[in-house]
Write a structure and sequence with these properties.
Radius of gyration: 50 Å
Number of strands: 18
Helix content: 40-55%
Length: about 650
C-alpha cells in the first residue's frame, strides 16, 4: 500500500512524456542552443589554462596561387614540407588539394610519394569529411595514390593508411549560428568509415582525427591517456591570427618555387620542435581549398585555424567530451521521474513556508545539476546544462498544474458530496423541527382553545339556561384562537428552514446575531462574549435540529433582556453570553446586570413553555433561570453527544 501511495504511475508517465516532448521542442530552438553554446564556452574558457599553448604549434598559410609555377603544385608543396622538416619541425599536418589524389605530374618520381616514403613517421595527411549522420557510417577518401607505389597486398601491409591519414570534419551548411553538434563546436577524435582498400575493395576501418594522430605521433608524451570515444568540445582561444604563423613567401621563393634547406635563423627558430600545420587560406571563395568553419568569433575561420584550436585543446589537456544524445535523454528522464514523484509528496504541510517549497525544490535541483555539470567539466566530461534544466523546470510546472487541476476536481467532488450531505441533513432537521412544531401547536390547541371549548360544553350541560349570547361569544373566541394557531402554522411553514447564520457553527451564528442586534440599534447594552467553539457533526440531522432549538432558546433569552432589562425598561448596562464545554456537558448562559425578575418567565408564559420544550428536546437537557443579587441569568445545559462519525471541527474553518 505504501508503494501505491508514494509511486503514482499517472504522474510518472506524465513527467516522462512531458520531458521527452519538451526536450525535443527546446532542442530545436535557436535561443536555447545559443544559451547552451554561451554557457559551454564560458565553462570551457574557465577550465582551460589562460596561457595559450602556442609554443608547440605553428601555422604555415599557403595561397593556391603560391603553388602556381613550372615545377607544379605538388612539387612546390612537397618542397615546402621538406624545408620545414629539414629545419627541425617535430612533424607536419598537411592539408592537400582535393585533386592531388588522382593527378600525377611525374609518374616515375611523384614528389608527394617521395615525401611520404622518406618521412612517413613525421607526416599526417588531412582528409576533409562530413559530420557523422545518425545511424550511418560516412565514407572517407584514402590517399593510397600518394603512397609509394607498391603492388596489391604489399601496399596494404607496408602502409596502414589510418596511421598516416586522419580526418577533419567540415560542414558545408552555413548557418547564421552554428548548432551545438556542428563541426564548429564539436570535434570527433575517432570515427569508423567506409574506405576503398587496394587489396580488399570497400571495407570499414577506424580513423583518428588528424590532430589527435599528429599529437600521438609527434608529441606522444602529451597525448591523452584515455581513449576518446565521445566527441570533444572545441575550445576557441581566439579569432584568426591568435596562433603564430608563417607564410609561403617567408620560407620559399615565390618566383622559382624553390625552398632553401637552411632557413634564416629567426625562421628556423620558430619552426624548430613545432607541430606545423600547413593549409590554405586563399582563395577564400573556394571552400574546398580553405575548408572554412563558422566559429563563435567570426563569420568564417580557415580550417587550419580551427585545427590549431583543436590541437591546442589536446596539448593543454582541455578536452571535454560530449556524451551522446541517449545519455542526455536518460538524464532528463531520470530527473523528470524524480521531480514528478517529489511533486506528489505530502510532507510539505510540515514546512512553515510550504507555498515556496516547489519553487525552492526546483531551484535546488537545477543548482545541484549545474554544480554536477561544473564538476564533470573538471573531469573532462561536458554535460549539457540549459536543455535539462529548462526541461525539468517545465516538467515540474506541468506536473504541478496537472496535480493542482486534479486536486481542484477532487475538492469540487468533495464539496458537491458535502453539499448533498448537508442538504440531506438540513432536510432531516427541518422535518424534525416540523414535527416538534406540530406537536407544540397541537399541545397549545389542546391546552388552550380545546380546554375553553370543553368548559363551554360542560357549562351547556350543567346550565342549559345559560345566556346564549355569552356561549356564542366564548365559542367565537375559541374559533379565533384556533384560526390564529392555523395562521401560525401557515406562516411557519413558509419560513421553516435552517437558519443561514448557523451553517458556520453555533458560535458563529450567535456572534452574527449579536452583531445584527447591535448594528440595528435593537441592543444597546455592552456585549461580553465568552464563547468556546464546539466540535459539531456537520451532516447530522439531529445536531442541526438541536442547534436550531438552542439558537431559538438564545434568541428568546435575548428578547427578554431587550424587553425587560435594557433601558428604558430596566437598568442593565451589559449582557454576558457564555458557551462552555466541560467533558460532554455544554452550557449556554445569558446573564444581565439589570432586571431581577423577567415577566416572560412567569410560570405558564409562552417564553417559559418554549424554553422548557427546548430543554426537554435536547439529550440530558435542562434549563435554569437564576435571580442574582445584581442581575438575572438563564442557563441551558445539555449533553453534547451526537453521532460523530461525520464530525467537523468548525473551529478549523
Amino acid at each position: 500500500m505504501a508503494g501505491r501511495r508514494f509511486f503514482k504511475p499517472g504522474v510518472l508517465c506524465l513527467g516522462i512524456g512531458c520531458s521527452f516532448f519538451v526536450s525535443l521542442l527546446l532542442s530545436e530552438l535557436s535561443l536555447v542552443q545559443s544559451l547552451e553554446a554561451a554557457l559551454q564556452d564560458r565553462l570551457m574558457a574557465w577550465r582551460s589554462p589562460q596561457r595559450l599553448p602556442s609554443a608547440d604549434i605553428l601555422l604555415v598559410k599557403v595561397k593556391e596561387s603560391d603553388l602556381v609555377g613550372p615545377a607544379g603544385e605538388q612539387a612546390r608543396y612537397a618542397a615546402l614540407a621538406e624545408a620545414l622538416l629539414q629545419n627541425g619541425a617535430a612533424g607536419l599536418v598537411l592539408n592537400l588539394l582535393d585533386n592531388w589524389t588522382v593527378e600525377f605530374l611525374d609518374e616515375t618520381n611523384p614528389p608527394l610519394q617521395m615525401l611520404v616514403e622518406q618521412h612517413s613517421d613525421r607526416l599526417v595527411l588531412v582528409t576533409p569529411t562530413a559530420p557523422p549522420a545518425p545511424a550511418s557510417l560516412g565514407e572517407i577518401e584514402t590517399y593510397y595514390p600518394l603512397l609509394p607505389p607498391l603492388v596489391g597486398n604489399d601496399l596494404r601491409f607496408a602502409y596502414d593508411v589510418s596511421e598516416i591519414q586522419g580526418f577533419f570534419e567540415v560542414d558545408n551548411a552555413q548557418e547564421r549560428q552554428p548548432k551545438l553538434d556542428s563541426p564548429a563546436r564539436l570535434a570527433h577524435l575517432s570515427r569508423s568509415f567506409y574506405y576503398n582498400d587496394p587489396a580488399e575493395g570497400q571495407t570499414v576501418g577506424r580513423f583518428k582525427s588528424a590532430l589527435l594522430l599528429a599529437l600521438e605521433k609527434f608529441k606522444p608524451e602529451l597525448a591523452p591517456a584515455k581513449n576518446q570515444r565521445w566527441p570533444m568540445q572545441i575550445v576557441y582561444y581566439g579569432p584568426t591570427g591568435t596562433f603564430p604563423s608563417l607564410t609561403f613567401e617567408q620560407i620559399c621563393h615565390p618566383e622559382v618555387g624553390g625552398c632553401d634547406r637552411a632557413l634564416p635563423p629567426e625562421i628556423a627558430r620558430r619552426v624548430r620542435n613545432k607541430i606545423v600545420i600547413i593549409g590554405f587560406v586563399a582563395p577564400e571563395n573556394n571552400p574546398k581549398v580553405v575548408l572554412p568553419v563558422r566559429s563563435p568569433f567570426e563569420a568564417q575561420m580557415p580550417g587550419i585555424e580551427v585545427q590549431a584550436n583543436i590541437l591546442a585543446s589536446l596539448l593543454s589537456q582541455s578536452v571535454a567530451q560530449r556524451p551522446p544524445r541517449w545519455i542526455l535523454q536518460l538524464a532528463i528522464a531520470t530527473g523528470a521521474i524524480l521531480i514528478s514523484q517529489l511533486c506528489t509528496f505530502k510532507f510539505t504541510a510540515l514546512l512553515p513556508k510550504k507555498r515556496h517549497f516547489f519553487s525552492s525544490l526546483g531551484a535546488a535541483i537545477a543548482l545541484l545539476y549545474l554544480a554536477t555539470g561544473v564538476a564533470f567539466t573538471q573531469q573532462q566530461l561536458l554535460l549539457p546544462l540549459t536543455l535539462p534544466v529548462l526541461t525539468w523546470l517545465t516538467t515540474g510546472i506541468v506536473v504541478q498544474l496537472w496535480l493542482l487541476y486534479q486536486m481542484q476536481q477532487l475538492l469540487i467532488s468533495q464539496q458537491r458530496y458535502e453539499i448533498a450531505q448537508l442538504k440531506s441533513a438540513e432536510t432531516g432537521a427541518v422535518l424534525l423541527q416540523t414535527r416538534k412544531l406540530l406537536q407544540r401547536i397541537a399541545s397549545g390547541i389542546h391546552d388552550g382553545p380545546l380546554q375553553e371549548l370543553r368548559l363551554v360544553m360542560d357549562k351547556l350541560e350543567l346550565a342549559p339556561e345559560a345566556d346564549p349570547d355569552l356561549v356564542v361569544e366564548q365559542l367565537s373566541a375559541v374559533g379565533i384562537d384556533i384560526r390564529n394557531y392555523l395562521q401560525n402554522i401557515r406562516q411557519m411553514a413558509d419560513t421553516l428552514k435552517v437558519t443561514p447564520e448557523l451553517r458556520q457553527g453555533l458560535v458563529a451564528g450567535i456572534g452574527t446575531y449579536l452583531q445584527q442586534l447591535t448594528a440595528s440599534g435593537t441592543l444597546s447594552l455592552t456585549v461580553v462574549e465568552q464563547m468556546q467553539r464546539l466540535p459539531e457533526p456537520a451532516f447530522n440531522s439531529q445536531w442541526i435540529d438541536a442547534r436550531e432549538d438552542i439558537f431559538q432558546f438564545f434568541r428568546e433569552a435575548m428578547t427578554n433582556v431587550i424587553v425587560h432589562a435594557q433601558p428604558p425598561h430596566g437598568q442593565a448596562t451589559q449582557v454576558i453570553v457564555s458557551l462552555q464545554l466541560e467533558g460532554e456537558r455544554c452550557t449556554l448562559s445569558i446573564e444581565n446586570d439589570g432586571s431581577a425578575i423577567a415577566p416572560a418567565h412567569r410560570r405558564g408564559g409562552y417564553g417559559t413553555k418554549m424554553m422548557e420544550t427546548v430543554a426537554r428536546s435536547l439529550p440530558g437537557g435542562t434549563w435554569q433561570p437564576t435571580v442574582l443579587k445584581n442581575g438575572y441569568r438563564v442557563e441551558l445545559s445539555w449533553r453534547h453527544q451526537f453521532d460523530y462519525a461525520d464530525l467537523l471541527d468548525i473551529s478549523a474553518v
